[in-house]
Specification:
11 strands, alpha/beta, Rossmann fold, 342 residues, 3-stranded antiparallel sheet, 2 domains
Length: 342
């Protein structure tokens, strides 16, 4: 049994999936791998929606019928039961009691549909809602790395790099741990100077960087303070915005350094979104996100109107998002155009 957020791994290895529901905290089994689980979940949700819709229509029909029957049982002044004829009065009174019983039987069916036979409305588990705002469009040439060596004195990590990124590219950088991926991103941001060669950003490029452990976040400031410094929004606007990243209630008052890795990851994403960058450098952004949050993150990146370079190990993410692959085989990087390869 393995706990994993690696969807490609689960597709290759798993023969069954246990889903722990975040709302009910119940464990539910599904046969097959991750893709089979997704298909079963979709069919299950469609079936529940249909059953819920059918039941709501039936409840509405029965309520209308019960109201109509009760209306027939009402005593009307001037009617036959009000003529002074004792026989007529008794006859219509008895018929009225029978009509009321019919109405009560219908209402009992409604109560059963609302209680013991109730079909619950399919719930929505909380997931991140990420929408990148449109920033200024950069020049066509976003990044140029020419004849560059990257590393530290006495420790050359990467050499003879000649790489280019155009506007709109989605580049995934892969390679062994410790091979220089983060150092390359730090060189692009200007935090690390290349040992040789040149790294240039194009005109109108607004660069946003998400570090692997979110160390760019001030550890002693909370989410409200960080967002206030970045945006100048009022507290209501900030809290509403942070709620899209599942940072709600007292979470916004916890210093960034005391947040969990997943919470810091979501806060870092919120900072990127709020500032309207058009070139994103993301260092393993999926590390601390669960599968639903990864899916929402991928959806947001697909709709992002800009350029992205991300360090990633999630094969499912790379296959669905990347247009180019930078394969780091120390000390060089090989570029693969995935759109042509596909």
């Amino acid at each position: 049994m393995v706990v994993s957020h690696d969807r490609a791994f689960l597709d290759q290895v798993a023969t069954g999936i246990f889903e722990l529901d975040a709302v009910t905290h119940h464990l539910k089994p599904y046969a097959g791998n991750y893709s089979a689980y997704l298909e079963q979940k979709a069919a299950e949700r469609d079936r529940q929606w249909q059953e819920y819709t059918d039941q709501q229509s039936e409840i509405a029909r029965l309520r209308e019928s019960a109201a109509h029957v009760r209306g027939l049982a009402k005593f009307r002044k001037g009617g036959k039961a009000d003529s002074g004829d004792k026989f007529a009065k008794g006859f219509f009174a008895n018929r009225g009691l029978g009509t009321v019983r019919r109405a009560k039987n219908i209402e009992a069916r409604i109560d059963k549909l609302l209680t013991t036979d109730r079909v619950n409305k399919p719930g929505r588990s909380w997931q991140m809602k990420i929408e990148f705002s449109k920033g200024m469009q950069s020049a066509r040439h976003v990044l140029a790395i020419e004849d560059a060596d990257i590393g530290y004195p006495g420790n050359l990590l990467l050499k003879d790099l000649n790489l280019h990124i155009q506007y709109g590219d989605r580049v995934a950088l892969i390679g062994p741990n410790g091979s220089g991926k983060t150092s390359l991103l730090r060189a692009i941001t200007g935090q690390l100077q290349p040992l040789r060669g040149e790294i240039r950003l194009g005109s109108n490029v607004k660069l946003g960087y998400m570090a692997q452990e979110q160390e760019e976040l001030p550890p002693h400031q909370n989410a409200l303070e960080i967002m206030d410094g970045l945006t100048g929004w009022n507290q209501t606007e900030i809290r509403s915005f942070l709620s899209k990243f599942l940072l709600k209630g007292d979470d916004v008052f916890i210093p960034a350094g005391k947040l969990s890795y997943g919470e810091r990851s979501r806060l870092s994403l919120a900072c990127l979104v709020a500032q309207g960058y058009n070139f994103l450098l993301l260092d393993e952004p999926l590390n601390h996100l669960d599968i639903p949050s990864r899916a929402r993150f991928e959806e947001a990146l697909a709709n992002f109107d800009g350029t992205i370079l991300t360090v990633a190990h999630d094969r499912y993410f790379i296959e669905n998002y990347a247009s180019k692959l930078w394969d780091l085989i120390p000390p060089v990087i090989r570029e693969i155009n995935l759109e042509i390869a596909r």
